[in-house]
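Following up on my earlier thread - several people asked me to post the actual chain instead of describing it. Fair enough. Here it is, all 275 residues.
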Amino acid sequence: MSRTARNPLLWLLLTLLSVVFLGPLVVMVLTSFKTTGESQAVPPTIWPGEWTTRAYDVLLSSPDNPVLRWFANSMMAATAHALLVVLVASMAGYAFARMEFAGRRVLFGIVLSTMFVPGFIFLMPNFLILDSFGWLDTLLAIVVPGAAGAFGVFFMRQFFLSLPKEYEESARIDGAGAFTTFFRIVLPNAMPAMVTLLVLSFLANWNDFVWPLYVLFNDDSLTLPIGLTKLQGAYTIDYPVIMAGAAIASLPVLVLYVFVQRYVIDGVASSGVKG
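Reply from S.P.:
Thanks for posting it. Predicted structure:
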């Protein structure tokens, strides 16, 4: 065992960080199994005195709150948006990293400059564009906008700059065209960066609140973050039900990260600033 691994201060720090990050999740899940009275008790309790699944029964069986429909809407929208972002960003990032064309640096600078513009500025123009397409109150309204974001293009460009050019040169010598080289040689080697961008895009769309609030109107079209706000009453707050909804919303994110964390770490480590 290395000296760093035997350092008790390191283990103490890691334990404290684990408590800070995991503590709220644990309290959230435990609160979802409490009774309404116990969730409002003063001083508050952490461990439920009486375990009950009432919150989940109310959440999943209420006809006024189709949580499963909201969950499905969020899952479909976030998945489609993440895949679209990866496709667009990988192609644009490869063009900026490898292809020579007039004004490449200037155009890339313009793309990067959009990262410094507040997103609220684009709310009304995007709303009017979607209205003209007839996409309002549909999942397309939260899938397509943002698919060509500057961050994804920048992230993939930096990764492609780190790939050896010899892979592509060998493919061209063997007679492969530009698209064959990109899809069969470049993309398989860019898997860590693509998975990282996929996860980040999925999380951004899954947690998005403001934009879906503007473009989704009917209850059956809502995503989970918007739908969960309907669980809070005007005069009373059912904390176990709200915590149950938050637990359901957190589940896909936790499962996703558990399975792809290795790719995320490799992707971030390989996409340093270069060029």
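The chain has one domain: 68-270. That should answer part of your original question.
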